[in-house]
Write a structure and sequence with these properties.
Cofactor: Cu cation
Organism: Panicum virgatum (Blackwell switchgrass)
Number of strands: 33
Catalytic activity: 4 hydroquinone + O2 = 4 benzosemiquinone + 2 H2O
Shape: globular
Strand content: 35-45%
Largest sheet: 6 strands, mixed
GO molecular function: copper ion binding; hydroquinone:oxygen oxidoreductase activity
Subcellular location: Secreted, Extracellular space, Apoplast
Helix content: under 10%
Length: about 575
């Protein structure tokens, strides 16, 4: 529910300026209070204190309509620095509210607060919010539900009910200690102990039958499941026994509906599906299962399965809300853990609506082309040190075009806006690998990567094509990449090394799917296009937190355009200081 607090005068003035600047005055103002606090939670018969928003796990849902202004006051009551990212929100000209620590803002320090203000422009569907510093998003996350403007229907049959489904991961240990130990030793972090559905691990884990998410339904109804993968490190298959799912929306963009038994969803992605229940009482209950997709070696990821339960209301019971507990439970069959062909076939079926009302405005001409290699590598151990990386004298690292990103101590956006970028970042991120090699073949002898804080600089309005090429230096893995500040069109994908002569001929420039997060196929590539129509500094990173921690990230700097509505808004007065 929206909070009813009073904004200070300075914040109110800033809201009015933002309304006037982005032309959103016709929408409502949606106000929320986020109190970041420690909360005791018990899972898997073990209790610990975790970071939460408003004491909720998962956190509260942010509701809005297209055209609204969202105002969220975040107060940090915990001993950790905090920032909140509104994943998938375009943040047109409002990059100060995007949230990644040391990219668009300095973090909110303990005892401090910050008011995030952003307009919902041209978006409707399911997105989500999460902490964007260290591994705190393990427990600090929640849904964003954006409804269409009043009177505007869905481009599919309206569901009878809408239900958020958030996948997460649970560690019995303190996740900040988990990543701290991994970074100290140079090895991989300990994997999670369970996956969760809406914060609950479910009956397939020890001591967890009472902590099971149950979706209670009636026959002959249609339910829209707003599915979000908030897991830190795992792509997930999801299926419901005995029921098919019709995918109608991904990353808050409508698509041509496809009906499937199983979906694949990477960390950071959202998927809206329609679930039509059976026409009459079936006399059974049904498992809802999620399990990982991975091509990594066993032991480097959580290879368990989380279950929720789909229950039908019993019409024979006199109670209006009775559900029979003594029924057989049917179980779906999920793809094999490394079923890359299923993943390619599923993602290849996703297509934009490409209608007059919801066009696929994919750039046909390209101003700037980039080839980014994404994958794992190594750093050398300290002199006379011993590490737990691929060898005992190396540490795990990850990079884009062989540059392992180093977070600055000053926010990049603030350094750019104030003209004080010297010593903070350099504007010379390589447009292609400086030393080409057989990316998906025999790895090079030298697996070390360089460190740096480098940006790509783009003029406002440039049409960009980016090919992200997976590597097999330390094994071929899928990498879900998220781009802040933009949606992009997935115009092509394939396996092996990208061929700049042959592969573009097979691009889909008619109805490619539009997303904010896309998986780079294991030992393959993906091509995206977008327009640099949003001034500011925008993070792009793998959404597997372990790879982010190792440096698989970079940033784009989009310069102001010539017109007033093409320029970054000034920073708010309460912007956190480093």
């Amino acid at each position: 529910m929206a909070a009813s607090y009073l904004l200070p005068c300075s914040a109110l003035v800033a809201v009015l300026v933002l309304l006037f600047s982005v032309g959103m005055a016709e929408g409502a103002i949606r106000e929320y209070q986020f109190d970041v606090q420690m909360t005791n939670v018990t899972r898997l018969c073990s209790s610990k204190s975790i970071v939460t928003v408003n004491g909720q796990f998962p956190g509260p849902t942010v509701f809005a309509r297209e055209g609204d202004l969202v105002v969220v006051r975040v107060v940090n009551h915990v001993p950790y620095n905090m920032s909140i990212h509104w994943h998938g929100i375009r943040q047109l000209r409002s990059g100060w509210a995007d949230g990644p620590a040391y990219i668009t803002q300095c973090p909110i320090q303990s005892g401090q607060s910050y008011v995030y203000k952003f307009a919902i422009t041209g978006q409707r569907g399911t997105l989500w919010w999460h902490a964007h510093i260290s591994w705190l998003r393990a427990t600090v996350y929640g849904p964003i539900v954006i409804l269409p403007k009043p009177g505007v229907p869905y481009p599919f049959p309206a569901p009878d009910k809408e239900v958020p489904i958030m996948f997460g991961e649970w560690w019995t240990a303190d996740t900040e200690a988990v990543i701290s130990q991994a970074l100290q030793t140079g090895g991989g972090p300990n994997v999670s102990d369970a996956f969760t559905i809406n914060g609950l691990p479910g009956p397939l884990y020890n001591c967890s039958a009472k902590d099971t998410f149950k979706l209670k339904v009636q026959p002959g109804k249609t339910y829209m499941l707003r599915i979000i993968n908030a897991a830190l490190n795992d792509e997930l298959f999801f299926s419901i026994a005995g029921h098919r799912l019709t995918v109608v929306d991904v990353d808050a963009v409508y698509i041509k509906p496809i009906t499937v038994e199983t979906i694949l969803i990477t960390p950071g992605q959202t998927t809206n599906v329609l679930l039509t229940t059976k026409p009459s009482y079936p006399g059974a209950t049904y498992y809802m299962l999620a399990a990982p997709y991975s091509t990594a070696r066993p032991g480097t990821f959580d290879n368990t399965t989380v279950a929720g339960i789909l229950e039908y209301k019993d019409p024979a019971s006199p109670s209006p809300a009775a559900f029979n507990k003594n029924l057989p439970v049917l179980r779906p069959t999920l793809p094999q853990i490394n079923d890359t062909s299923f993943v390619a076939n599923y993602t290849g079926r996703l297509r934009s609506l490409a209608t007059a009302e919801y066009p696929a405005d994919v750039p046909r001409e390209v101003d700037r082309r980039f080839l980014f290699t994404v994958g794992l590598g190594t750093h050398p151990c300290a002199v006379n040190g011993t590490c737990q990386g691929p060898t005992n004298d190396t540490r795990f690292a990850a990079s884009v075009n062989n540059v392992s990103f180093v977070l600055p101590t000053t926010a990049l956006l603030q350094a750019h806006f104030t003209g004080r970028s010297n010593g903070v970042y350099s504007p010379n991120f390589p447009a292609a690998p400086l030393v080409p090699f057989n990316y998906t073949g025999t790895p090079p002898n030298n697996t070390n990567v360089a460190n740096g804080t480098k940006l790509v600089v783009l003029p406002y309005g440039a049409s960009v094509e980016l090919v992200m090429q997976g590597t097999s230096i330390l094994g071929a893995e899928s990498h879900p990449l998220h781009l802040h500040g933009f949606n992009f069109f997935v115009v092509g994908q394939g396996f092996g090394n990208f061929d700049p002569v042959k592969d573009p001929a097979n691009y889909n420039l008619v109805d490619p799917v539009e997303r904010n997060t896309v998986g780079v196929p294991a030992a393959g590539w993906v091509a995206i296009r977008f327009r640099a129509d949003n001034p500011g500094v925008w993070f792009m990173h793998c959404h597997l937190e372990v790879h982010v921690s190792w440096g698989l990230k970079m940033a784009w700097l989009v310069l102001d355009g010539d017109r007033p509505n093409e320029k970054l808004l000034p920073p708010p007065s309460d912007l956190p200081k480093c």
